[in-house]
Design brief:
It is built from four helices and six strands, in the order H-H-E-E-E-H-E-E-E-H. The chain has 160 residues and is of the alpha+beta class. The structure holds methionine sulfoxide. The site of methionine sulfoxide has 14 residues, from helix 3 and strand 6.
């Protein structure tokens, strides 16, 4: 499948466009892992200055590595550990401007400087998280937080 990046003027428009692509990706794939794999590629295609884009999925009371783009990463994260496990424990999106000053950060790529982790809620349960790393410190802002929540809700809507 070919993804065509249309013109956008704001980050908000970019995320809205990505959400539409995610809906098409899920319809076309008709398979959870294939759709998440293409969604991780979509995140990597659209977002500038990122070095890891992907998923950790809740399984057996832990987070297990899902489809992603980037360097090989830790396969299993306990709830409460790292930025990803904290997002699940606190049931809240995490934005870390400087991962080096964050004591509860699990380093997968030493180039990572900032990170945003967004839970995917299905009904009231957390299905998993979207994890994005950047080599730039403070790469993510409030618009990214809002945009990533839109993408998480879009994914949840396709899985439900
Ligand atoms: N930094 C994450 C671990 C996963 S890697 O970034 C891909 C964390 O602290 O949970």
């Amino acid at each position: 499948m070919e993804i065509i990046i249309e013109e956008f003027h704001t980050k908000k428009e970019m995320y809205a466009q990505m959400a539409r692509h995610i809906q098409n990706i899920f319809s076309e794939a008709n398979d959870l892992y294939a759709a998440l794999a293409n969604t991780s590629a979509l995140l990597n295609l659209y977002l500038e200055n990122v070095n890891w884009t992907g998923f950790y999925l809740c399984k057996d009371d832990a987070l297990v590595l899902g489809p992603f783009q980037g360097k090989p990463a830790v396969a299993r994260i306990q709830i409460g550990d790292g930025v990803c496990g904290t997002a699940v424990k606190e049931r809240a999106q995490q934005r870390v401007d400087d991962v080096h000053s964050c004591c509860n950060h699990i380093a997968c790529d030493l180039n990572s400087a900032s990170e945003i982790v967004t839970p995917i809620f299905i009904k009231d349960e957390i299905f998993g998280v979207i994890d994005i790393d950047s080599p730039l410190s403070a790469r993510f802002d409030e618009t990214d937080e809002e945009g990533m929540r839109l993408l998480a809700e879009t994914i949840a809507g396709q899985i439900r």
